[in-house]
Specification:
The complex is a heterodimer of chains A (about 110) and B (about 120). Chain A has about 110 residues and is an all-beta fold. Chain A is built from no helices and ten strands. In chain A, the strands form two sheets. In chain A, strands 2, 4, 5, 8, 9 and 10 form a six-stranded mixed β-sheet that branches. A four-stranded antiparallel β-sheet of chain A has the order 1-3-7-6, with no helix packed on it. The mean pLDDT of chain A is about 95. By secondary structure, chain B is mainly beta. Chain B has strands at about 5, 10, 20-25, 35-40, 45-50, 60, 70-75, 80-85, 90-100, 105-110, 110-115. In chain B, the strands form two sheets. In chain B, strands 2, 4, 5, 6, 9, 10 and 11 form a seven-stranded mixed β-sheet that branches. A four-stranded antiparallel β-sheet of chain B has the order 1-3-8-7, with no helix packed on it. The chains are: A mainly beta (about 110), B mainly beta (about 120).
């Protein structure tokens, strides 16, 4: 079972802001990275090293972290942001790589 | 442009073996760690294996340790995953991923489907 817990699903109105959280003890020590996966497609890296965006990722995606929780925020959500989102980091031992349980984001 | 192309997926019986290959291009292969991440049908993601840029270090998830072996050939820009003693629960799409050792997973292939069934 994953040591990184995410809400299974969240919804957001078009143009509004949504925050996706990832909770785990290991996040007090290790950064989380975030991935977006649309149906039938491979995941895409959207945030790394807690808050950095790869080139090509819109500025509406941002990352943050506090204590045992990492967050991915979409400010001004667009229809194309509807997808599954996964956090990724180490487990509490630091020796295993784990993904969060995933959050399905629906844009209304 | 980074390209990662998986091959070798298919149908295999329980207890059987299969070898996945990943052909990489568009970046300096020997400067990046490589990973295999799988996704069972309708389920989440799992990093099953990783190998450092020079092949000197490897990582395996507990679920595959002792059954899967990852390797790379930096002269051919390829990474491989040898899978043995396959089980039904190994059925998944397997993605080849370029990334940082125990860090971000930068670029993903389109995936290869492995089905373990009699």
């Amino acid at each position: 079972s994953s040591e990184l817990t995410q809400d299974p699903a969240v919804s957001v109105a078009l143009g509004q802001t949504v925050r996706i959280t990832c909770q785990g003890d290991s996040l007090r020590i290790y950064f989380a990275t975030w991935y977006q996966q649309k149906p039938g497609q491979a995941p895409v890296l959207v945030i790394y090293d807690k808050y950095n965006r790869p080139s090509g990722i819109p500025a509406r995606f941002s990352g943050s972290s506090s204590g045992d929780t990492a967050s991915l925020t979409i400010t001004g959500a667009q229809a194309e942001d509807e997808a599954d989102y996964y956090c990724y980091s180490r487990d509490s031992s630091g020796n295993h790589l784990v993904f969060g349980t995933g959050t399905k984001v629906t844009v209304l | 442009e980074v390209q990662l192309v998986e091959s070798g997926g298919g149908l295999v019986q329980p207890g059987g073996s299969l070898r996945l290959s990943c052909s990489a291009s568009g970046f300096i292969f020997n400067t990046y760690s490589m990973h295999w991440v799988r996704q069972a049908p309708g389920k989440g993601l799992e990093c099953v294996s990783a190998i450092s840029n020079n092949g000197g270090a490897t990582y395996y998830a507990d679920s595959v340790k002792g059954r899967f072996t990852m390797s790379r050939d930096n002269s051919k820009n390829t990474a491989s995953l040898q899978m043995r003693s396959l089980r039904a629960e190994d059925t998944a799409v397997y993605y080849c991923v370029k990334g940082a050792w125990f860090g971000e997973l930068e670029s993903w292939g389109q995936g290869a489907l492995v089905t373990v069934s009699s």
